Amino acid sequence: MNGWNEGITHAIAYIEDNLTNDIDINEIANKAYVSSFYFQKIFNVLCGFTVGEYIRNRRLTIAAQELCSTDIKVIDVALKYGYESPDSFARAFTKFHGISPSFARVQGSKLNSFAPLKIKLTLEGGTMLEYKIVEKAQFTVMGKSRKFNTEISYDEIPKFWKEHMESEDAKVVCGMYGICMDSDGKNFEYFIADNYIPWNEIPEGYETKVIPASTWAIFPCRGALPKALQDVNTKIWSEWIPSCKAYKLAGNYNIEMYTPLCENPGENYCEIWIPVETI
User: Fold this and answer.
1) What does the radius of gyration of the chain's CA atoms come to, in whole angstroms?
2) What is the pLDDT of residue 239?
3) Greater pLDDT, 220 or 241
């Protein structure tokens, strides 16, 4: 991932230069030299909010500044910053600033400001992150999938798991894998699956997916879930990926591999698989 620091800086500059234009997530990701699927994952971990939230907050910040300093009409500001109607703009503006667009012009009104990002990667101590590089042949999984928008996936995917594990589906697919597959840059498919047994019938409502032969960086996670997995996931995207000089990301998918839960949560074991290729 050589050039990641430079790449994300270019991506943020592109966003800032196009706040009044339609912004394509794929074009943003191109500036960072990665796919939109991976860019959004890394951005979210590094920044603590999604790309969409960043764009929305920056637009509402600049819109408020324009309303305070010019006589531009509210409807013109709404259209300029990508809102389809004054009402939708007013709702977003009020939620962000705490006052309506019209009150923003009142002298002394308090407004919120969301500053442009400046990414600075620094070394913080010598934390260890265990991993191994493994070649795996093509394999097939069977399960159920659902599409998620990247903006809400962190909240919605746990609900998908809960729904699955509390239903009869858990008797068919125990949930060995959680697989993220890019869809269109804005949405992705999440698959709860097990290894496919060819001689077994595929039940109605289920499907199979072929996972291609790949080189994987595999990161073990030990301890109570979901914290153990989330902690390792954060280290992967904020530390390992930016500093890795031997491998780059490959394939717009990644896998969570789960083993049966232990009575003692501290003994739980799972893995995160990231497809990579040598630089």
Assistant:
1) 22
2) 83
3) 220
pLDDT score for 241: 84
- Tokens 């509210």 sit at which residue? 74
Is omega for the bond preceding 226 within 30 degrees of 0, making it cis? yes
Cα–Cα distance, 29 to 31 (Å, whole number): 5
Task: Evaluate whether 180 touches 188 at the Cβ level (below 8 Å).
Answer: yes
pLDDT of residue 184: 66
Please give the single-letter amino acid code of residue 228. Answer: A
Average pLDDT, the chain: 88
* CA distance readout (Å), 25 to 43, 126, 135, 186: 12, 34, 31, 7
CATH architecture of 132-278: Alpha-Beta Barrel (3.20)
At which residue do the structure tokens 């019938």 appear?
A: 201
Contact 257, 192 (CB under 8 A): no
Query: Are 54 and 15 contacting, i.e. CB atoms less than 8 angstroms apart?
Result: yes
What are 100's strand-pairing partners? none
Q: Average pLDDT of 13-18?
A: 95
- Looking at domain 4-105, its CATH superfamily turns out to be Homeodomain-like (1.10.10.60)
* pLDDT confidence of residue 51: 92
Q: Of residues 221 and 123, which shows the higher confidence score? A: 221
Residue ranges of domains in the chain = 4-105, 132-278
Block residue for tokens 């039940």: 203
Distance of alpha carbon 103 from alpha carbon 94, whole angstroms: 10
Token output for 278: 């040598």
Query: Amino acid identity, residue 121?
Result: L
Asked whether 276 and 218 are in contact (CB, 8 A), the reply is no
